[in-house]
From TrEMBL:
Keyword Transcription: no
GO molecular function, one term: NAD+ binding
Protein name: prephenate dehydrogenase
Organism ancestry: Bacteria, Pseudomonadati, Pseudomonadota, Alphaproteobacteria, Rhodobacterales
InterPro entries: 6-PGluconate_DH-like_C_sf, NAD(P)-bd_dom_sf, PDH_C, PDH_N, Preph/Arog_dehydrog, Prephen_DH
Gene source species: Albidovulum aquaemixtae
Alphabetically ordered keywords of this record: Amino-acid biosynthesis, Aromatic amino acid biosynthesis, NAD, Oxidoreductase, Tyrosine biosynthesis
Length: 307
């Protein structure tokens, strides 16, 4: 247990990320009171039952009243509506952050609604699972994972406090500018998700030809794709709609590489294939050596110690 970093923290949108933050705050004593807002009564009741919120509200405006930290944890496309609603109700001196997977679009949507005297520091924990909703969260989700903060001109002391908060949940915090964030994540997260969705879509079309063979003989590689492709449709629709430029850029590069490999296969160019796969194997090994193996679905639960 550490001393609380914020007295009152408001979670807006009570899904995987917010519920994980709530559990982590409770486990490590990072906030005195955690309030939450969800649109449905079922979700609000679950948050109280599961114990990751102390108080829940049907309106976001009520949930943020007197909060020292407000966390926007809704899909990227819902950020603007929420920011518009809470703007007039924020406490002077409070910090607003978000956990959205895209940063430039969130800044454009949220910043104009944040009054003077309130710090707005966008964020993005690089941790998740394919599950969603209030029952999917767990306290250790952020342990040993990066959390990127976008300074966005905010006061250094407010950034330092938010950094302490994320470190209290076990994350490694780094700062990055929003445009750079969106390109990096297009490479490491957004385009890989699109490829997984596509591959599972291809198999789905084939299944109509081969009936149940795809499921029956599902190999590990394909199963990994299906895990990713089971991720929340609303969240990922919003990611692609709001990180359009960067995703299309990386997708263009991906297509070029795919054509090069397709040609190597057609030409029987084994050297080209071998060299390519040798380079990609080295990348995987360097990720493991850096302690960033994100491939295991249960990484957060299975590999952390008993804390
Ligand atoms: N899932 C991941 O792997 C992951 C990782 C890092 C960041 N993120 C980002 O975190 C945010 C939340 O994702 P999540 O995985 O917790 O999703 P989730 O679907 O589990 O939770 C989002 C919740 O927001 C609610 N919601 C939607 N619109 C709302 C509105 N207008 N007002 C109030 N509530 C609303 C939904 O009902 C849902 O319960 C997204 O912006 C996402 O891009 C997700
Ligand atoms: O592990 C997973 O299921 C994830 O996809 C998590 C993941 C990722 O791509 O790494 C997904 C979206 C985020 O914004 C951050 C993390």
């Amino acid at each position: 247990m550490t001393a609380p970093i914020y007295e009152r923290v408001a979670l807006i949108g009570l899904g995987l990320i917010a519920s994980s933050m709530g559990h982590a705050m409770k486990k490590w004593g990072l906030a005195t009171t955690v309030t939450g807002h969800a649109k449905t009564e079922l979700t609000r009741t679950s948050a109280l039952e599961l114990g990751f919120c102390d108080e829940v509200f049907a309106s976001a405006a009520e949930a943020v009243r007197d909060a020292d930290l407000v966390v926007l944890a809704v899909p990227v496309g819902a950020m603007e509506g929420v920011a518009t609603e809470i703007g007039p109700h924020l406490k002077p001196g409070a910090t607003v952050t978000d956990v959205g997977s895209v940063k430039q679009a969130v800044i454009e949507a949220v910043a104009p609604n944040i009054p003077e005297g309130v710090h707005f520091i966008p964020g993005h924990p690089l941790a998740g699972t394919e599950h969603s909703g209030p029952r999917s969260g767990f306290a250790t989700l952020f342990r040993n994972r990066f959390c990127l903060l976008i300074p966005n001109g905010a006061a250094p002391e407010a950034i330092a406090r938010l950094r302490d908060y994320w470190e209290g949940m076990g994350a490694n915090v780094e700062e990055m500018d929003a445009a750079h964030h969106d390109i990096v994540l297009a490479v490491t997260s957004h385009t890989p998700h699109l490829i997984a969705y596509t591959m599972v879509g291809v198999a789905d079309h084939l299944r109509r030809v081969t009936e149940s063979e795809i499921i029956k003989y599902s190999a590990a590689g394909f199963r990994d794709f299906t895990r990713i492709a089971a991720s929340d449709p609303t969240m990922w629709r919003d990611v692609f709609l709001t990180n359009k430029e960067a995703t299309l850029d990386i997708l263009g590069r991906f297509t070029e590489e795919l054509f090069a490999l397709q040609r190597a296969i057609r030409m029987g160019d084994g050297d080209e294939l071998f060299d390519y796969f040798t380079r990609t194997r080295a990348i995987r090994r360097s990720i493991i050596e850096a302690g960033q193996d994100t491939a295991a679905p249960d990484f957060g639960r299975a590999k952390v110690d008993g804390a």
